[in-house]
Amino acid sequence: MQEGPEDTDPTRAADVADAMRVLARERFLPADQHPHAHEDRPLPLWHGQTSSQPSTVASMLRLLEVPVGARVLDVGSGSGWTTALLARLVGPGGAVLGLELDPELAGWGAGNLAACDLPWARIEPATPGSLGRPVDGGWDRILVSASPRSLPEVLVDQLAEGGRMVIPVRSTMHLVERTAGRTRVTTHGSYTFVPLR
């Protein structure tokens, strides 16, 4: 494993910034958190879940390098914000599946997503005891917004050839890339996330 350079592609950064401007965080927060939507810190949802701070979300999305038309899996979709941002990045020719373990939060996040008119994205409850959702050919991109204690091979195995996964492991952001049947893992700074269950 090695330390990787930070992504500095100005076009990619502009795409992420545009998505975050169009899909404001406030739309994905409980009413009592709306006054804090522009603060760069995690905000509480419920049942111990949080809305990640905007700078962290932006860093993860830049690192993920989401192409137009990609198939993307969003693990720990929470309020639906990251699922909506991913949907904006892939466009109508892509597909995004958000998975959330808490059924109540999954339903609320799905409602938030439905209000954004992004029909190529959806949120479903995750299957307890199972990580991700395998698809034929694998996912082009996987975003994980909760922290496992070690890199889950079951998610690595769900990546397509040429795929990328961004996942915080313990407190370190990891980028996993699959190329020519090989897996490359680099680390990209320290962050704090709720544990992956």
UniProtKB/TrEMBL annotation:
One of its GO terms (molecular function) is protein-L-isoaspartate (D-aspartate) O-methyltransferase activity. Its EC number is 2.1.1.77. The keyword Cytoplasm applies. InterPro entries: PCMT, SAM-dependent_MTases_sf. Its main location: cytoplasm. It comes from the Bacteria. It holds the Pfam family PCMT. One of its GO terms (cellular component) is cytoplasm. Keywords: Cytoplasm, Methyltransferase, S-adenosyl-L-methionine, Transferase. It is found in: Cytoplasm. GO terms for biological process: methylation. Belongs to the methyltransferase superfamily. L-isoaspartyl/D-aspartyl protein methyltransferase family. This is Protein-L-isoaspartate O-methyltransferase.
